Each structure stands twice: as C-alpha cells, then as structure tokens.
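Provenance and format

Records in this collection were gathered into a single text stream. Each protein contributes a sequence line and a token line. The two records reproduced below are adjacent in the stream.
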Amino acid sequence: MDKLIFSLCPHDAVRNLPAWIELELHLRQRAGCPYPAQYFTDFESFYKQGFPRLGAGYLNPLDLLAAVDERGFTPLARAPFPEAVVAITAADHPSQEQDLNGATWAIVPRQFASYLGLYVGQQRGLKPGRVVLAESWLQVVRWVAEGRVPYGLVYKGVYEHLSALSRENVQVIGEAEVDFAWHGFVLTGQAPPELRDRCQTVLLNMHHDPQGRTILDRLGMERWLPIDQLDRLREAVNQGRAALQALLDQTPGAR
C-alpha cells in the first residue's frame, strides 16, 4: 500500500495546485489518508506514472469511470459542477448548431468532452461527416480559428480559460451541460473500509469544517456531493466511444 499515491487530473493540477495541496493535507490530517501526493501537469506522464499507482485521487469523469469499472475503486464524492462541452467555429464563420450535422469536427481522442459531444450530438440529430484528431484542446481552437477545420469540440472550461485574444477568433455555436458527469474523488478498493468511511465523511462534511470551508473557497466550490450512480455516465462514454470508432473506421487516415 505504501507504493500507492494521491494524485489529480492534470487539468486541475495546472490550474490551482496550491489549493489541492491543502486539500490533500486536510485529508491526511482529518481522515488519515496514507498515500503520498504526486502531481502531474500532463496526461502522458499521469497515465504512465500516476494512474497505475493511484491509491486515492480526484479524476475527470472518464478516468473516474475507468478506476471504478476496471480497477475496483470506490467513488467517494464529486464536485458540484456539471461537465459541459461546447462546439466552436471561427468568429467570421456564420453558423448555427444544426450546421454541425454532416460537417468535419476536430476533437481530441480519448477525452470525455469528445465522447460527450458525440453522444449529445446524436441525441440532437447532429452527426459529423468526418472527424479530425487533434493532440490538444488548444490545437482544436487553433485549427478552427485558422479555418483549417470548420468546427471543433472542447471542454467549456477550456474555452472559458482561453486568453482574450484566442477567444476573439472563435465563437460558440452549441453547448451541452449534463448533470450525470463530474470530476470526483475515488479510493482504491485495497483500502480498508474504515479508511473509505473516514475519507468520504471528511469530504462530504468539509463545508462544515472551518479549515475545510477555507479550502473549498479557494477551489471555488460550495461543497462536495455524494455520487449516487454512474449508469448515465457509462452510457454517454460507451455511446460516444462507439460513435467515434465508427467515424474513424469510415474515414481513411483519420487516426
């Protein structure tokens, strides 16, 4: 067990690491969470060095689901913010959401926002004619801004954190916010039940603890919420992944 670590989704480690360090220390002090912290600022390093050794952590919806379904982790608590994806096009490209249907979309593979966009698109009768795979969200934004690809999918949070200059060159033409997907905490199934119960109790009651309240304020959230079910998240991931695979199979050279 001493080889396991506490870690974060790299997006969060980049944005507000000091507050997350305080939270990890809070869990260590209040719940006795034994896993030393190790943080990663890029997904390649996280998946190679962090995720395989994870004992406890705060993960994006896709990694949370993989930890629970593939590795037997226990979900402890979730953020109060629903996940959201936006469809963007160039600022000088007059478009409406329905114009997405049959068009080329730039996406980042193996990311929840991409699966969510494809899943919600299906529900709204919007299906890309083909997809182009980007290496990062910023590459999607750049391709769209330059007119290399007419449309792209990115996390709403990524769009909102773009520089003013980058946002001037693109516009949002569609948005989907869902109440069944969130970032959340998980704990390894190897952990004893008493550790699981302590960690969950501390997280769900942080807003009543003065130190916990301060940390939550620094993270910009009111409180942690319980995770009631993951079925709808599984559905979105499975259908979005299948939709992407079908598009790749019919698009030579897309990978």
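Adjacent record:
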Amino acid sequence: MANWYEPTQQQVSDWAAWVAERPEGVRLVAEQFFPWKLYRLTGTDQRVTIQAFGENDNGPVTVRVAVRAKFNFVSFERDVFGIAPSDLVECDLPEPSERLGVANRDSLLSWEKA
C-alpha cells in the first residue's frame, strides 16, 4: 500500500521510539499505524492520514484522522475524532485521473452535470 510521503530513517526510528513510550493501550493501536501511510476510512470511503491517538478513560483507544483535498474531493478539509482503528485500512494513492480538491459551488454544479 501507499506511503503519502517517504519517511527518513530518522523518522522511522523516532516513530518507533515514540510508540514504545506510549501507555499499553495506545501502544497496541499505534503499532498498527504509521504517519506516512495512507488509510481509507471504511464508513465514508475517504482517504485519510493519521493525526493522533485518543486514550479514553473508560473506553477503547480511538484515532484522529485528517481528511485532505490532496487525497479526496471534499466540500471542506477537516480532522475527524473518535475513529475506531478497525474502521481504517491501508490504501493506495489516488489515481492521476481522480478528481481531487475542495469543492466550491461552481465545481459542485459541474460535477452534477458530468
């Protein structure tokens, strides 16, 4: 699957060290994800990047993801909190022919006509 950027050896090493220092619940989830990988949010089919892990007092660890126009055609870019790790799967980069970017009124109207 795709890296949305190529990490340096230092970044890989720093990530491993950061993960190793997390509380057990966060560490177990963070070991499954990498900040340089692209993931698909299964509920919306949007491509996302990992932003943070949320450690809840009485619940499971969740993930905060970024939905960016670089990888999707969206009405606005945003971060989404409280995502279950099981709702994320690695995915490929967008195809060159895919429509990407932030929609505006004109682009939405032209999209509907296509």
